[in-house]
Amino acid sequence: MRKLLLAxxxxxxxAGTPALAETINLKVIGQPLATGLIQKNxxxxxxxxxxxxxxxxxxxxxxxxxxxxxxxxxxxxVLKSGLFDLISLRMSQVSRDEPxxxxxxxxGLNPDFQQGRxxxxxxxDTVDQRLQERFNTKLLAVWPFGPQVLFCKHPINSLADVKxxxxxxxxxxxxxxxxxxxxxxxxxxxxxxxxxxxxGMIECAITGPSSANSAGWPEVTTHMLPLGFQLALNxxxxxxxxxxxxxxxxxxxxxxxxxxxxxxxxxxxxxxxLDASRCNVGAEPCTTGTQYDLVDVPVSEADxxxxxxxxxxxxxxxxxxxxxxxxxxxxxxxQRDLADIAGL
Length: 344
Known about the structure:
By secondary structure, the chain is an alpha/beta fold.
Protein backbone atom coordinates (compact mmCIF):
# COMPACT_ATOMS: atom_id res chain seq x y z
CA MET A 1 0.00 0.00 0.00
CA ARG A 2 2.86 2.37 0.88
CA LYS A 3 4.52 1.69 -2.51
CA LEU A 4 1.25 2.30 -4.33
CA LEU A 5 0.71 5.56 -2.44
CA LEU A 6 4.29 6.70 -3.14
CA ALA A 7 3.94 5.91 -6.86
CA UNK A 8 0.64 7.80 -6.99
CA UNK A 9 2.14 10.87 -5.27
CA UNK A 10 5.21 10.78 -7.52
CA UNK A 11 3.08 10.56 -10.64
CA UNK A 12 0.94 13.46 -9.47
CA UNK A 13 4.05 15.57 -8.76
CA UNK A 14 5.61 14.89 -12.16
CA ALA A 15 2.36 15.58 -13.95
CA GLY A 16 2.16 18.96 -12.25
CA THR A 17 5.75 19.92 -13.17
CA PRO A 18 6.08 21.88 -16.45
CA ALA A 19 8.30 20.16 -19.01
CA LEU A 20 11.64 21.81 -19.61
CA ALA A 21 11.59 23.76 -22.87
CA GLU A 22 13.61 22.06 -25.58
CA THR A 23 16.74 24.01 -26.52
CA ILE A 24 16.64 25.64 -29.96
CA ASN A 25 20.12 25.49 -31.47
CA LEU A 26 20.86 28.11 -34.11
CA LYS A 27 24.05 28.15 -36.18
CA VAL A 28 24.41 31.72 -37.43
CA ILE A 29 26.68 33.42 -40.00
CA GLY A 30 26.99 37.18 -39.54
CA GLN A 31 28.44 40.01 -41.56
CA PRO A 32 32.21 39.96 -42.17
CA LEU A 33 34.29 41.50 -39.39
CA ALA A 34 35.92 43.67 -42.06
CA THR A 35 32.69 45.54 -42.78
CA GLY A 36 32.94 47.38 -39.47
CA LEU A 37 30.64 48.98 -36.94
CA ILE A 38 27.21 47.57 -37.80
CA GLN A 39 28.53 44.05 -37.36
CA LYS A 40 30.45 44.97 -34.21
CA ASN A 41 27.98 47.26 -32.43
CA UNK A 42 24.57 46.03 -33.57
CA UNK A 43 24.55 42.57 -35.12
CA UNK A 44 26.86 40.53 -32.89
CA UNK A 45 25.46 41.95 -29.60
CA UNK A 46 21.94 41.22 -30.90
CA UNK A 47 22.69 37.53 -31.38
CA UNK A 48 24.60 37.32 -28.10
CA UNK A 49 21.53 38.58 -26.18
CA UNK A 50 18.76 37.15 -28.38
CA UNK A 51 17.78 34.39 -25.94
CA UNK A 52 17.36 36.92 -23.13
CA UNK A 53 15.55 39.41 -25.38
CA UNK A 54 13.00 36.89 -26.68
CA UNK A 55 12.69 34.63 -23.65
CA UNK A 56 13.22 31.68 -25.98
CA UNK A 57 15.47 28.70 -25.07
CA UNK A 58 18.04 29.62 -27.70
CA UNK A 59 21.59 28.38 -27.98
CA UNK A 60 23.32 30.46 -30.66
CA UNK A 61 26.64 29.75 -32.33
CA UNK A 62 27.45 33.04 -34.11
CA UNK A 63 30.36 33.34 -36.55
CA UNK A 64 31.26 36.36 -38.73
CA UNK A 65 31.39 35.37 -42.39
CA UNK A 66 35.11 35.97 -42.81
CA UNK A 67 35.91 33.47 -40.05
CA UNK A 68 34.03 30.58 -41.68
CA UNK A 69 35.83 30.01 -44.98
CA UNK A 70 32.44 30.43 -46.72
CA UNK A 71 32.18 33.03 -49.51
CA UNK A 72 29.39 35.59 -49.52
CA UNK A 73 28.20 34.40 -52.94
CA UNK A 74 27.55 30.94 -51.43
CA UNK A 75 25.24 32.08 -48.63
CA UNK A 76 21.92 31.02 -50.16
CA UNK A 77 23.28 27.58 -51.06
CA VAL A 78 24.53 27.15 -47.51
CA LEU A 79 21.13 28.13 -46.09
CA LYS A 80 19.27 25.80 -48.43
CA SER A 81 21.52 22.89 -47.44
CA GLY A 82 20.84 23.48 -43.74
CA LEU A 83 24.54 23.71 -42.93
CA PHE A 84 23.68 26.96 -41.09
CA ASP A 85 20.27 27.95 -39.75
CA LEU A 86 20.39 31.72 -40.11
CA ILE A 87 22.60 34.00 -42.21
CA SER A 88 23.14 37.74 -42.51
CA LEU A 89 22.73 37.82 -46.29
CA ARG A 90 24.79 40.15 -48.46
CA MET A 91 22.07 40.83 -51.00
CA SER A 92 24.03 42.02 -54.03
CA GLN A 93 26.45 39.12 -53.75
CA VAL A 94 23.81 36.39 -53.36
CA SER A 95 21.80 37.87 -56.23
CA ARG A 96 24.11 35.91 -58.53
CA ASP A 97 22.14 32.84 -57.45
CA GLU A 98 18.78 34.63 -57.41
CA PRO A 99 18.61 37.76 -59.62
CA UNK A 100 15.16 38.68 -58.22
CA UNK A 101 16.95 39.97 -55.11
CA UNK A 102 18.86 42.62 -57.06
CA UNK A 103 15.56 44.31 -57.88
CA UNK A 104 15.71 45.71 -54.35
CA UNK A 105 18.78 47.80 -55.10
CA UNK A 106 19.27 48.56 -58.79
CA UNK A 107 21.82 51.27 -59.49
CA GLY A 108 20.07 54.64 -59.21
CA LEU A 109 16.95 53.21 -57.55
CA ASN A 110 17.90 54.09 -53.97
CA PRO A 111 19.89 57.35 -53.89
CA ASP A 112 19.04 57.89 -50.21
CA PHE A 113 17.66 56.16 -47.11
CA GLN A 114 14.11 57.46 -47.53
CA GLN A 115 13.73 56.03 -51.02
CA GLY A 116 15.36 52.79 -49.88
CA ARG A 117 12.76 52.27 -47.17
CA UNK A 118 9.93 52.73 -49.66
CA UNK A 119 11.49 50.24 -52.06
CA UNK A 120 12.09 47.61 -49.38
CA UNK A 121 8.58 47.91 -47.97
CA UNK A 122 7.08 47.47 -51.44
CA UNK A 123 9.29 44.65 -52.74
CA UNK A 124 10.46 42.62 -49.72
CA ASP A 125 7.50 40.20 -49.78
CA THR A 126 8.15 39.39 -53.45
CA VAL A 127 11.77 38.55 -52.67
CA ASP A 128 10.75 36.53 -49.61
CA GLN A 129 8.33 34.43 -51.66
CA ARG A 130 11.03 33.68 -54.22
CA LEU A 131 13.56 32.70 -51.55
CA GLN A 132 11.08 30.38 -49.89
CA GLU A 133 10.31 28.69 -53.20
CA ARG A 134 13.88 28.23 -54.46
CA PHE A 135 16.17 28.30 -51.44
CA ASN A 136 14.06 27.05 -48.53
CA THR A 137 14.72 30.40 -46.86
CA LYS A 138 12.45 32.87 -45.09
CA LEU A 139 13.48 36.53 -45.18
CA LEU A 140 13.26 38.08 -41.70
CA ALA A 141 14.54 41.62 -42.38
CA VAL A 142 16.26 43.88 -44.93
CA TRP A 143 18.58 46.74 -43.94
CA PRO A 144 21.21 48.99 -45.60
CA PHE A 145 24.87 49.74 -45.12
CA GLY A 146 24.00 53.08 -46.68
CA PRO A 147 24.73 54.92 -49.95
CA GLN A 148 27.65 53.38 -51.82
CA VAL A 149 30.07 56.02 -53.05
CA LEU A 150 33.25 56.24 -55.11
CA PHE A 151 36.81 56.22 -53.77
CA CYS A 152 39.75 56.78 -56.15
CA LYS A 153 43.53 56.94 -55.94
CA HIS A 154 43.44 58.93 -59.18
CA PRO A 155 42.43 62.64 -59.29
CA ILE A 156 38.78 63.02 -60.33
CA ASN A 157 36.50 66.04 -60.57
CA SER A 158 33.29 64.25 -61.56
CA LEU A 159 31.80 60.88 -62.44
CA ALA A 160 32.93 61.34 -66.04
CA ASP A 161 36.56 61.11 -64.90
CA VAL A 162 36.29 57.38 -64.21
CA LYS A 163 36.52 56.84 -67.96
CA UNK A 164 39.28 54.32 -68.59
CA UNK A 165 39.85 53.64 -64.86
CA UNK A 166 39.56 50.19 -63.27
CA UNK A 167 36.73 50.37 -60.70
CA UNK A 168 35.97 47.74 -58.06
CA UNK A 169 32.33 46.58 -58.21
CA UNK A 170 30.38 43.96 -56.23
CA UNK A 171 27.46 43.03 -58.49
CA UNK A 172 26.64 42.78 -62.18
CA UNK A 173 24.21 45.71 -62.17
CA UNK A 174 26.88 48.05 -60.82
CA UNK A 175 29.37 46.65 -63.32
CA UNK A 176 27.07 47.52 -66.21
CA UNK A 177 26.62 51.05 -64.87
CA UNK A 178 30.37 51.61 -64.50
CA UNK A 179 30.82 50.36 -68.04
CA UNK A 180 28.11 52.74 -69.28
CA UNK A 181 30.07 55.76 -67.98
CA UNK A 182 33.35 54.57 -69.48
CA UNK A 183 34.95 52.82 -66.50
CA UNK A 184 36.36 49.30 -66.44
CA UNK A 185 34.44 47.23 -63.84
CA UNK A 186 36.51 44.77 -61.81
CA UNK A 187 34.80 42.42 -59.31
CA UNK A 188 36.85 42.31 -56.10
CA UNK A 189 35.83 40.85 -52.72
CA UNK A 190 35.58 43.50 -50.01
CA UNK A 191 38.44 42.08 -47.97
CA UNK A 192 40.80 42.26 -50.97
CA UNK A 193 40.08 45.86 -51.99
CA UNK A 194 42.65 47.60 -49.79
CA UNK A 195 45.50 45.52 -51.17
CA UNK A 196 44.19 45.78 -54.74
CA UNK A 197 44.18 49.57 -54.49
CA UNK A 198 47.61 49.64 -52.88
CA UNK A 199 49.10 47.45 -55.61
CA GLY A 200 47.43 49.41 -58.43
CA MET A 201 45.35 46.46 -59.60
CA ILE A 202 42.36 48.84 -59.43
CA GLU A 203 42.24 52.65 -59.35
CA CYS A 204 38.82 53.22 -57.82
CA ALA A 205 36.39 51.27 -55.64
CA ILE A 206 32.79 51.60 -54.50
CA THR A 207 31.46 51.02 -50.98
CA GLY A 208 29.88 52.92 -48.09
CA PRO A 209 31.87 55.65 -46.28
CA SER A 210 31.79 53.81 -42.93
CA SER A 211 32.90 50.45 -44.33
CA ALA A 212 35.67 52.19 -46.28
CA ASN A 213 36.81 53.99 -43.14
CA SER A 214 36.82 50.79 -41.06
CA ALA A 215 38.78 48.96 -43.76
CA GLY A 216 41.33 51.76 -44.20
CA TRP A 217 40.54 52.56 -47.83
CA PRO A 218 41.42 56.26 -47.36
CA GLU A 219 44.99 55.12 -46.65
CA VAL A 220 45.30 54.02 -50.29
CA THR A 221 43.00 56.51 -52.04
CA THR A 222 42.98 60.29 -52.47
CA HIS A 223 39.47 61.31 -53.63
CA MET A 224 35.87 60.56 -52.57
CA LEU A 225 32.83 61.30 -54.75
CA PRO A 226 29.77 61.07 -52.43
CA LEU A 227 27.27 60.10 -55.13
CA GLY A 228 25.05 57.26 -53.85
CA PHE A 229 24.86 54.51 -56.48
CA GLN A 230 23.13 51.88 -54.32
CA LEU A 231 22.27 51.31 -50.63
CA ALA A 232 24.10 47.96 -50.27
CA LEU A 233 21.10 46.17 -48.79
CA ASN A 234 21.52 43.15 -46.55
CA UNK A 235 19.01 40.80 -44.99
CA UNK A 236 18.51 38.04 -42.45
CA UNK A 237 17.42 34.70 -43.86
CA UNK A 238 16.44 31.65 -41.83
CA UNK A 239 16.23 28.09 -43.11
CA UNK A 240 12.53 27.22 -43.50
CA UNK A 241 12.95 23.83 -41.85
CA UNK A 242 14.41 25.58 -38.80
CA UNK A 243 11.64 28.20 -38.86
CA UNK A 244 8.86 25.63 -39.14
CA UNK A 245 10.12 23.76 -36.07
CA UNK A 246 9.18 26.81 -33.99
CA UNK A 247 5.71 27.22 -32.52
CA UNK A 248 3.64 30.16 -33.78
CA UNK A 249 4.38 32.01 -30.53
CA UNK A 250 8.12 31.40 -30.87
CA UNK A 251 8.02 32.59 -34.49
CA UNK A 252 6.22 35.75 -33.41
CA UNK A 253 8.78 36.51 -30.69
CA UNK A 254 11.72 35.89 -33.01
CA UNK A 255 10.25 38.03 -35.80
CA UNK A 256 9.52 40.85 -33.35
CA UNK A 257 13.16 40.84 -32.23
CA UNK A 258 14.38 41.07 -35.84
CA UNK A 259 11.89 43.85 -36.57
CA UNK A 260 13.40 45.83 -33.68
CA UNK A 261 16.96 45.14 -34.84
CA UNK A 262 16.02 46.15 -38.37
CA UNK A 263 14.73 49.56 -37.26
CA UNK A 264 17.81 50.06 -35.09
CA UNK A 265 20.19 49.33 -37.97
CA UNK A 266 18.36 51.62 -40.42
CA UNK A 267 18.80 54.53 -38.00
CA UNK A 268 22.37 53.61 -37.04
CA UNK A 269 23.39 53.17 -40.65
CA UNK A 270 22.31 56.73 -41.46
CA UNK A 271 24.26 58.07 -38.47
CA UNK A 272 27.37 56.18 -39.56
CA UNK A 273 27.04 57.35 -43.16
CA LEU A 274 26.94 61.02 -42.22
CA ASP A 275 29.72 60.77 -39.64
CA ALA A 276 32.07 58.64 -41.76
CA SER A 277 31.53 60.93 -44.74
CA ARG A 278 32.92 63.75 -42.59
CA CYS A 279 35.72 61.62 -41.13
CA ASN A 280 36.99 60.58 -44.55
CA VAL A 281 37.51 64.17 -45.70
CA GLY A 282 38.84 65.57 -42.43
CA ALA A 283 35.66 67.39 -41.40
CA GLU A 284 34.13 67.67 -37.93
CA PRO A 285 32.44 66.21 -36.00
CA CYS A 286 34.07 62.82 -36.49
CA THR A 287 33.08 60.46 -33.69
CA THR A 288 32.79 56.92 -35.10
CA GLY A 289 35.82 56.54 -37.37
CA THR A 290 39.38 57.55 -38.16
CA GLN A 291 39.93 61.02 -39.58
CA TYR A 292 41.53 61.20 -43.03
CA ASP A 293 42.07 63.96 -45.58
CA LEU A 294 40.52 62.73 -48.82
CA VAL A 295 39.49 65.31 -51.41
CA ASP A 296 35.72 65.74 -51.14
CA VAL A 297 34.70 65.88 -54.81
CA PRO A 298 31.55 68.02 -55.30
CA VAL A 299 28.59 66.17 -56.80
CA SER A 300 27.58 68.02 -59.95
CA GLU A 301 24.14 68.41 -61.49
CA ALA A 302 25.42 66.36 -64.42
CA ASP A 303 26.37 63.51 -62.07
CA UNK A 304 22.93 63.58 -60.43
CA UNK A 305 21.22 63.59 -63.82
CA UNK A 306 23.30 60.64 -65.02
CA UNK A 307 22.39 58.61 -61.93
CA UNK A 308 18.71 59.57 -62.07
CA UNK A 309 18.41 58.35 -65.67
CA UNK A 310 20.25 55.11 -64.98
CA UNK A 311 17.29 53.06 -63.73
CA UNK A 312 15.38 53.51 -66.96
CA UNK A 313 18.33 53.49 -69.37
CA UNK A 314 20.72 50.90 -67.91
CA UNK A 315 20.06 49.17 -64.62
CA UNK A 316 16.39 48.12 -64.96
CA UNK A 317 16.38 46.90 -68.60
CA UNK A 318 19.62 44.91 -68.31
CA UNK A 319 18.57 43.38 -64.97
CA UNK A 320 15.03 42.58 -66.14
CA UNK A 321 16.31 40.69 -69.17
CA UNK A 322 18.64 38.60 -67.04
CA UNK A 323 16.14 38.01 -64.23
CA UNK A 324 13.35 36.87 -66.55
CA UNK A 325 15.55 34.04 -67.80
CA UNK A 326 15.35 32.31 -64.41
CA UNK A 327 12.12 33.85 -63.12
CA UNK A 328 9.61 34.54 -65.93
CA UNK A 329 7.49 36.78 -63.66
CA UNK A 330 10.45 38.78 -62.40
CA UNK A 331 10.07 42.03 -64.37
CA UNK A 332 6.28 41.96 -64.17
CA UNK A 333 6.36 41.58 -60.39
CA UNK A 334 8.91 44.38 -60.08
CA GLN A 335 6.76 46.68 -62.22
CA ARG A 336 3.71 45.82 -60.12
CA ASP A 337 5.52 46.64 -56.87
CA LEU A 338 7.93 49.42 -57.80
CA ALA A 339 7.16 51.13 -61.12
CA ASP A 340 5.44 54.09 -59.43
CA ILE A 341 8.13 54.45 -56.77
CA ALA A 342 10.89 54.29 -59.38
CA GLY A 343 9.12 56.81 -61.60
CA LEU A 344 8.88 54.42 -64.55
